[in-house]
Amino acid sequence: MIKIAPSILAADFANLERDVRRAAAADYLHVDVMDGLFVPNISIGVPVVECVRKVTALPLDVHLMIDRPVRYAMRFCQAGADIVTVHVEADSAENIREALNIVHGQGKRAGVVLKPGTPAEAALPFLEVCDIVLVMTVEPGFGGQKFMADMMPKLRQLRSWIDRDNPACELEVDGGIDPVTCRTAIENGASVLVAGSSVYKADDISRRIQELRGQDGGPFAL
């Protein structure tokens, strides 16, 4: 089954607990952490993850869009993250591997993220130790951007390598996911879809989550 991870970046932060609970039909909650260095924006940090952890049983999928994530990997695990993903572009290969080891050492799931301009091959040194690989289909740093369909060859390549080398690894897509683009992502190998505006601007969030999974009863139903 396709998993859906609503991004709380698109939630109403004045009513964050309410919006976290409104997404209870999802599989994960996606938490975008930005530091204003690795990406040109600042979002949320450890204290918010700690608060969200208290109000949901959903796994927290924490996406570290930060410089040198090895410095904070343990703190986010301790704050309640269940999955921590780090950008391959954010540090040396040695330190990225160390960040993954730290997350696994805390009993959590770990993975790497690729920006649109980063080739699929950048994930290969880490693939066998990843629980998840995240492909960005927008430039990281801001919500509400248009889905980059030209990332689909990268997605297909990663799907083939995952199927060959680490079939338990999930393949996640983040950026511009809606009831139309979700089909493209799924057809090209995605198993987890991150959606922010598409979920939180929907009149019926539970139904929107079903639509994104392909469970809305339409011809794409899986």
DSSP strand count: 8
Number of helices: 8
**Biggest sheet, spatial arrangement of strands:** 1-8-7-6-5-4-3-2
Structural class determined from secondary elements: alpha/beta
Question: Secondary structure elements and their pairing?
Answer:
Layout: E1 3-6, H1 16-22, E2 29-34, H2 46-55, E3 60-65, H3 73-79, E4 83-87, H4 93-105, E5 109-114, E6 132-136, H5 152-165, E7 170-174, H6 181-187, E8 192-195, H7 197-200, H8 205-213
Parallel strand pairs: 1-8, 2-3, 3-4, 4-5, 5-6, 6-7, 7-8
Note down, in words, how this protein is organized.
- With 222 residues, the chain is α/β, with parallel strands linked by helices.
- It is 32% helix and 18% strand.
- The protein is built from 8 helices and 8 strands, in the order βαβαβαβαββαβαβαα.
- An 8-stranded parallel β-sheet has the order 1-8-7-6-5-4-3-2.
- Strand 3, helix 3 and strand 4 form a beta-alpha-beta unit.
- The longest helix has 14 residues.
- It is globular and about 45 Å long.
- The C terminus is likely disordered.
Give me some keywords for this one.
single chain; globular; 8-stranded parallel beta sheet; disordered C terminus; 18% strand; alpha/beta; 8 strands; 8 helices; 222 residues
Concise overview:
This protein has eight helices and eight strands, in the order βαβαβαβαββαβαβαα. The chain has 222 residues and is of the alpha/beta class.
